[in-house]
Amino acid sequence: MKKINTSAYMPTEIEVENLAANKVQINAYPFESGFAVTLAHPLRRLLLSSTVGSAPTAVKIEGVTHEFDSMRGMLEDVALFIINLKNIRFKIKGDEKRVEVNYTFSGSKEIKGSDLCNALVDIVTPEAYLATINEDAELSFSLIIEKGIGYVPSENIRGLVGDDYIALDAFFTPVKRAVYDIENVLVEDNPNYEKIVFTIETDGLVSPIEAFKNALEAMYAQMSVFNGILDIAVAPKSEHSSDNVEFGKLLQSIEELGLSARSYNCLDRAEVKYIAELSLMSELELKNLKNLGKKSLEEIRQVMEESGYPVGFNFSEETATLLAKKIQDLKSEANEG
What we know:
Blueprint: E1 13-20, E2 23-31, H1 35-50, E3 52-61, H2 78-86, E4 90-92, E5 98-106, E6 109-112, E7 121-123, E8 129-133, E9 138-149, E10 151-152, H3 154-157, E11 166-167, E12 170-171, E13 175-187, E14 190-202, H4 208-223, H5 227-233, H6 247-250, H7 261-269, H8 275-280, H9 283-287, H10 294-307, H11 317-336
Antiparallel strand pairs: 1-2, 2-14, 3-9, 3-11, 4-7, 5-9, 6-8, 10-12, 13-14
């Protein structure tokens, strides 16, 4: 018997199949007609554009002044050396977002990716070829390796590195392939429901599943901008108001939190000066502060929880606006002083 629905059918099935190293297939179903492509298309774009990877952004080679130079004793000229370098995939160890690594090779040698592993970086393409030097040569070079998303041309990097460095086009994305198909599936007697079939392949910097999770997080974060509409339209008035919020405590300096020097300096560089600024931040905004490592993130979360005003605290709209205004005034007074 036909019926009129009052809500979209909720998909219930998800399947993950490992196709090869760093390659998976993800199936999700059943979706109402039209819903599958609505979700799959932006997820594919986010997979390709928002997954964090790492790549060399600049190189400095001893005795070389520009990218069209050549070096005595090396088979490749500098331009080809750089092309080969871009094909090597570096993975920064630890929480650092930027590292500088130094290498020196001498004597007859064929240099591959595996030769570039050290205490700061791993190489996920160990067989990738870099250069060949002869018995009389010495090759010394430094690399800046950074984490990032998408593709950044060398023109945008040039001003961020020293004049003695050659800026490189940076291919950060670790996702080599992300495609989807939409297939029909039968639900009861209706053959028009849909299945999303995702195929995701990465270069090994992250796993395909991790890349997919990152894309989902990015989608949720982008959509959170509309939460304000939900608050205005349907949310009851918050129990927190300016009458029961300790303004004196919230407007104290972050120095009062007793953070480690590393955590404090990171916040200070980001111009976060007052406790209220952390309470007004979302978890994602805090996580995205430049150079904030995992340990510092956990420390800040903990001390803010203990303060009674954790990160992302549910202030009323009136209180949040008032706090933001007071913070702005305090910072203006400090700058004028």
